[in-house]
Input
Amino acid sequence: MARAATTADAFNAVAEPRRRQILDLLAGGERPVTDLVERIGIAQPQVSKHLRVLREVGLVRVRGEGRQRIYRLDARRLKPIHDWVGRYEEMWSERYDRLDAVLEELKREERGDGGDDE
Amino acid sequence: MARAATTADAFNAVAEPRRRQILDLLAGGERPVTDLVERIGIAQPQVSKHLRVLREVGLVRVRGEGRQRIYRLDARRLKPIHDWVGRYEEMWSERYDRLDAVLEELKREERGDGGDDE
DNA sequence: TTGACACATTCCCGTATCGGTATATATGGT
DNA sequence: ACCATATATACCGATACGGGAATGTGTCAA
Output
């Protein structure tokens, strides 16, 4: 077994910065591939491949118009991500940051401990 | 070049279901590794490796206590994800779903077009 | 039909994954 | 010192990613 496919779910699809960039662009309205290629600055095949992933996960829809293929955002598949992360939202509030700092302090006083971080 | 490292950022770290599961467990309070191993049901080395990734990204903190290592959630690094996804939140509301349906309808009427989905 | 344009697919390569198994590194107990 | 417990690391194999380059497919125009 290896790492899960990027097409496994939105979490994996969106882990790639270029793909987020594409979604960000599409958030401003539907666009043909060439448009995306220009704005992102990577080669066309790469863009097409990223779009394929986004399509398979259901984050974008395509429509053929003449020789162009117009891509449109479908944000619904982002909801699971939002829902999951949302459960943690209160934990990075000011209050929790404070609690964090306090706990660190206490530990540092208890034992003359060094950092454990990488 | 290959896929970005899982330790590149929280997006990549959290793309792995097992790692989300670990964070979910830690959301209920700090826990030693063995505890996580039992609850998740995968081998200890795998858990340790996932914890390493989470540590390197800054999503968890460790504290040594006797021969145990107590892991604690640090949710702050999830904020970028929440912020990014949050920008799309309004787009999966009822209204947009409707708009979506309407657009599909219109297109289907204009041209006797088949589906474009995989 | 031929050619240009828009886009998708295929192949290659180097890399990093995840799981499995084995081993190393603490730390505590006797 | 020795053994058990708790955890981390190293090594392996299979997978598939992501960029690059080349090629295939579809559509319009003359």
In short: Chain A touches chain B through 41 residues (CB under 8 Å). Helices of chain A lie at 10-13, 17-27, 33-40, 44-57, 79-86, 94-110. The longest helix of chain A spans residues 94-110. Residues 1-3, 5-6, 16, 18, 42-43, 45-46, 49-50, 64, 66-68 of chain A lie near DNA strand D (CB under 10 Å from a C1').
